[in-house]
Design brief:
The structure is a homodimer of 153-residue chains. Helices cover 45% and strands 20% of the residues of chain A. The first copy, chain A, has 153 residues and is α+β, with helices and mostly antiparallel strands. The first copy, chain A, folds into two domains: 92 residues, Arc Repressor Mutant, subunit A (Orthogonal Bundle), CATH 1.10.10.10; 51 residues, Dna Ligase, domain 1 (2-Layer Sandwich), CATH 3.30.1490. In chain A, the strands form two sheets. A three-stranded mixed beta sheet of chain A has the order 4-3-5. In chain A, strands 1-2 form a two-stranded antiparallel sheet. The longest helix of chain A is centred in the N-terminal third of the chain and has 14 residues. Chain A is globular. The first copy, chain A, binds a DNA duplex (25 and 25 nucleotides) through helix 4.
Chain lengths: 153, 153
Amino acid sequence: MKSIESLSYDELLLTFKTILRSNNLKFTAQREAILRTLYDHPDHFTPENLYLLVKQKYPELNTGITTVYRTLNLLEENKLATSLSFGTQGKKFELSNKPHHDHMICEECGVIVEFEDPNIEDLQQKIAKKHNFKLTDHLMQLYGICEACQQKQ
Amino acid sequence: MKSIESLSYDELLLTFKTILRSNNLKFTAQREAILRTLYDHPDHFTPENLYLLVKQKYPELNTGITTVYRTLNLLEENKLATSLSFGTQGKKFELSNKPHHDHMICEECGVIVEFEDPNIEDLQQKIAKKHNFKLTDHLMQLYGICEACQQKQ
DNA sequence: CTGTGTGCAAACATTTTGCAAGCAG
DNA sequence: CTGCTTGCAAAATGTTTGCACACAG
């Protein structure tokens, strides 16, 4: 199977269908609407935000928030989506269809900037090795004040 | 004021009292019990865990979980404690009285290993500069399988 | 047809808030 | 004394589950 990175929507959809089929799950209009919405808006969604947007774009499906949660978890379990934790305020999800990257978050306005740095990946491997961990994943988030918010102050 | 890193308990207590005084807040037995418990157990606590431990060690205070939440937030706002997010499962807290470090978490047993790497701090500064962010904080967590759990498999 | 998926409402888990009584300063 | 703090219960959030009906395969 092709890597998930930089897939076109059709390829992504095919990947999704393959995953569904191989787990004896069904391809439904709601599941597609959720995937499509995630694809069309490369933002970081809370389940609630995504639910509202899907409802707005595909009102005839009458998608429930329960289905959004279930689908997001399904996507995450199958590595088609990734989530970031925000303590009490839940999680934010994004599709995994772009190269690996990390996040820098503005504490004022909440904007999320993505970045990528190969040196960090190397460092992480070294650290894991030192403690005899088998690395499966990582999370790196920088917090700060973005350019726009610095000027407002 | 002395840096918070590597304070003895007496120094930590003094810092706490100073913060309380300067905010017109009161020094209470419950607040001290919570600080003391965090100090005596350099673990990563959920509010619930900490609540149970404080109750066990200082039963006569009859501390409520509400107070634990309120005190943890107070400590965090004043940089005496730090929290890590775990999505749905809430947060874990630790005292900030040791040098900066990051965390590596075992996905099997949940054990948290602390590590420290100056190279990472440098890299982060570079990345922030590139995007014109003013860095205030960061979070780096590595996920994997610890040595013990690898052997169990 | 069969069994998975769905929306709804209810249940859950975690955290926050309103309130009356208690206690620090 | 004054007003911050406390514990309790209730409310608020965010997420998951039970169920009867709908629908994909």
